[in-house]
Design goal:
The complex is a heterodimer. By secondary structure, chain A is α/β, with parallel strands linked by helices. Chain A contains eleven helices and ten strands. In chain A, the strands form two sheets. Chain A has a six-stranded mixed β-sheet with strand order 6-7-8-3-9-10, sandwiched between helices. A four-stranded antiparallel β-sheet of chain A has the order 2-1-4-5, covered by helices on one side. In chain A, β9 and β10 form a beta hairpin. In chain A, α3 runs parallel beside α6 and α6 packs parallel to α7. By secondary structure, chain B is mainly alpha-helical. Chain B has one domain. Chain B is built from twelve helices and no strands. The chains are: A alpha/beta, B mainly alpha. The interface between A and B is medium-sized, with 28 and 18 residues.
């Protein structure tokens, strides 16, 4: 679905990513983990055409997309939920959803927003409230729903669990796993809560100082004691986590 | 209606439109538009040219004034603002670029005034339009004292409906709040900024045409009043379009009201300091409410008043 080849990018003249290679398989969940300042967010911004790309290639759906503007990428089916400012605080929940479905015809956008408020009942309750008044967890749900409004082929999620209570963060992760299973949407997510993200992910990349230190199965990274303790601050596990089990269970139901 | 109040309302309506235009462009493109000065002057010259060549009253030519301002806004966006925004220019660069554009426009205004003088023997360097009005009175004053504030309010209502009821208007608010997320939603921010310049340029030009109904029009008219346009925008809080328009209205009215009352108290010498009065009001308001008029917690005060009344009646 998405291939990043020898990517060198950053902000202004500052280079953050060095010769990065990433591959996001179709219909899977790819997790990017790493310590602060590793370049995780920069990677997503580079894919979305937000920051400077010095060299390298980004191929989406067998088509090079370097140089395209953010709204052009969105129109190609990539949705992006930034870490901060992932909702329009001054607009109502409904307007947020409608704006995310900007490219859809009005009727289709309305139907889609109704469908999504059925999936996320918490949003239905606050449909006419300004998004700025929602709690952290509700905002993340809205951000995911906004991402889904466009019927995306690929969702880029940037640290959606930041600032959330552990129980809410787990709920958000479960929701992502469920959407991936039920709707077959390809997900590329960046997470600092590495353990939880690796539990739901299929493929994982560990970024350190703008370079890849690990690439492979997400589950296998959890069994790399050195990398886990040095860069992710987690104890290696030999068991699937709770979020994964619950997502599996819900998928079966 | 007292004559000072009639002139004040006309003038304040013009300043309100100009301040609203400055606020809109600052909110959307981070650009303090210094070209507002010449855009306002050009708005006045469009009306003047229309009246001199075709006759009639200024109201007939306001739509043309808006259109010319909007076109000049488009030129400024494509010629200066857009290339600079694309290169990530900082606010000071954006601001200085509009100052350059203002000087270019001012030169054209000067040439145009000279052309009118030499070709048609008109006197475009000192023009009074306040005596050209419809042939009736409203509230005992010239109609412009009522009609121009009403036109300004109508502009505000249309703008409000556009921003809150139309898909493009809501996308404009979304882009102003969060350009990255708006882009990720598929909104073309380039088009949003262009529309902001169309509306901003048009509003400013129309504001200038209004102001010439209260003051003498001349090629430096805009340059003289631009501090007050900015004062209105800053008083309004800079991040709220309605606040900007309200700020402009307050600045315009306090100038006329202040001069009228203070010259009665202290003599006509106060006239020389007329611009200081609204600027003083702005400074005092900002000391009390640093976020400007739009930052005044009106709801909190109203709730407190209601609570107090309830307490008294209980």
């Amino acid at each position: 679905m998405l291939k990043v080849e020898k990517l060198n990018s950053g902000y202004g003249k500052l280079k953050v990513l060095y010769d990065l290679d990433i591959e996001v398989p179709t219909k899977g969940i790819t997790v990017i983990v790493g310590p602060n300042g590793a370049g995780k967010t920069t990677l997503l911004c580079s894919i979305m055409g937000i920051n400077n790309i010095f060299s390298g290639n980004i191929i989406y759906d067998n088509e090079p997309v370097v140089g395209l503007l953010t709204h052009e990428l969105a129109r190609k089916g990539i949705s992006y939920a930034p870490q901060m400012g992932n909702v329009f605080a001054d607009l109502t929940v409904l307007d947020n959803l409608m704006m995310s479905g900007y490219m859809l015809p009005k009727e289709e956008a309305k139907d889609k927003s109704t469908e999504l408020t059925d999936i996320f009942p918490v949003l239905k309750k606050f449909i006419n409230r300004k998004a700025g008044t929602l709690s952290g967890g509700e905002r993340r749900m809205l951000a995911i729903a906004m991402g889904l409004m466009k019927n995306p082929k690929l969702m880029l999620l940037d640290e959606l669990s930041t600032d959330l209570a552990p129980i809410i963060a787990e709920k958000v992760m479960m929701e992502i796993a469920r959407l991936n299973k039920e709707l077959g949407i390809t997900v590329l997510m960046v997470e600092q809560m590495a353990k939880r993200a690796l539990e739901i992910g299929d493929t994982a990349y560990l970024l350190v100082s703008g370079e890849t230190r690990y690439s492979g199965k997400a589950d296998d990274l959890l069994h790399e004691p050195e990398l886990c303790s040095m860069y992710l601050g987690i104890k290696p596990s030999d068991k699937k986590g709770k979020a994964f089990e619950i997502a599996d269970q819900e998928g079966r139901e | 209606m007292a004559p000072w109040m009639a002139s004040g309302l006309v003038y304040a309506s013009g300043i309100a439109l100009c301040a609203g235009s400055i606020t809109l462009l600052y909110m959307s493109t981070r650009t303090f538009n210094f070209a507002a000065a010449s855009l306002a002057t050009i708005g006045f010259y469009v009306v003047y040219t229309g009246i001199q060549s075709l006759g009639g009253v200024p109201y007939y030519y306001y739509p043309f004034s808006f259109i010319v301002g909007a076109l000049l806004g488009v030129i400024c966006y494509y010629g200066l603002n857009r290339p600079l925004l694309k290169r990530g220019a900082v606010e000071i660069t954006l601001m200085m670029s509009t100052l350059g554009y203002d000087l270019i426009l001012l030169s054209f205004v000067q040439m145009y005034a000279d052309y009118l003088t030499s070709a048609y023997k008109w006197f475009p360097r000192r023009v009074t339009l306040n005596h050209i009005d419809l042939d009736f009175q409203i509230f005992g004053a010239r109609p412009s004292a009522t009609l121009l504030p009403l036109i300004a309010i109508a502009c505000l209502i249309i703008l409000h409906l556009f921003l809150t009821r139309t898909k493009f208007g809501i996308s404009m608010r979304a882009t102003i709040e969060n350009p990255i997320l708006a882009g990720a939603s598929g909104i073309n921010s380039d088009r949003v900024y262009l529309v902001a310049w169309v509306i901003g340029g048009g509003m400013c030009s129309l504001g200038g045409a209004f102001i010439a109904q209260a003051q003498t029009g001349h090629p430096f008219m805009g340059a003289t009043i631009i501090p007050l346009m900015f004062a209105g925008a800053i008083l309004g809080g800079l991040h709220n379009l309605y606040g900007g328009i309200l700020g402009g209205l307050v600045i315009g009215m306090t100038e006329y009201a202040g001069v009228f009352y203070l010259s009665q108290q202290f003599g006509p010498w106060v006239q020389g300091y007329r611009m200081g009065i609204p600027l003083l009001v702005m400074a005092i308001t900002l000391i009390a409410f640093p976020r400007g008029l739009s930052g005044i917690p009106l709801k909190k005060y109203l709730d407190r008043m209601v609570d107090r009344k309830r307490g008294v009646s209980a």
